[in-house]
Amino acid sequence: MIELIKVIILGIIEGVTEFLPVSSTGHLIVATAILQPNLSAGSIETFEIFIQLGAVIAVVAFFWRDLLSKLRALPTDPAVQRFALALFIAFLPAAVVGLVFRSAIKDLLFNPTVVAFSLIIGGIVLIVVEKLPSVRVTAAGTLDFSTVSLPRAVGIGLLQTLALIPGVSRAAASIIGGMLAGLNRETATAFSFYLAIPTLGLATIFDLLLSLDEIQTGDVPYFIVGAVVAGIVAWIMIRWLLRYVASHTYIPFGIYRIIAGGIVLVLVALGIFSQQ
Fold first, then answer.
1. How many C-beta neighbours within 10 Å does residue 61 have?
2. Which of 20, 69, 153, 214 has its CB surrounded by the most CB atoms within 10 Å?
3. Using CA atoms, how far apart are residues 66 and 72, in angstroms rounded to an integer?
4. Which residues have C-beta within 8 Å of that of residue 243, sequence separation ≥ 6?
5. SS3 assignment, position 227
6. Is the pTM here over 0.85, yes or no?
């Protein structure tokens, strides 16, 4: 029962943080180090990857009507074709860099200290970007994907490569990239959700295929529970965040990142969890 509770907690953390600009990977690294779920050797990292599928399914389920509409219009609608091309261009840089440097990134950067500094630096950047006079104030109903031009997609894609560093946050990188490129806050956030489908979806599937031999039969129920919990919570968070950004800035998340990063540094100094 204790292990099930730990798995549910990790699923909730994944669902809450995946689409917020606070880094789900960073939170999972720290939470797993603290909770230490009793999964089979080699299964813990695979579990962290697997439960991301819940978040991917959540974003597909949330936008399924619009996704289906875009798929139907793709062969004939130039606007939808431009949007699809923009998504592909924004997806490509992180996909290539992640594929080439996957092992090195995991071996060198997946530890609480890196997460802490990434959270703090990312929080400062998020606050600074929100203070820039060029950032457009979002009003309710100003979602406009036609403003996601190909040059803007390139900028978002390049910035998203930084999210390969744990603690940076894929959502934060793509949202900040969108706002710096001139998108309003709501459009940058929604584009980040759509970008999560190929980026997070393919990365998760790729990692899982390489890690299938590490999954033990006894751990499968925990994997499923974690993914389901993550999916339900992620769907709720997507709905909440789209409403939030219609009238609020991301500054509170920047402040949270700085505080959370400071707490992690203190925990590292106290030896609460060992470095990986």
1. 13
2. 153
3. 10
4. none
5. helix
6. yes
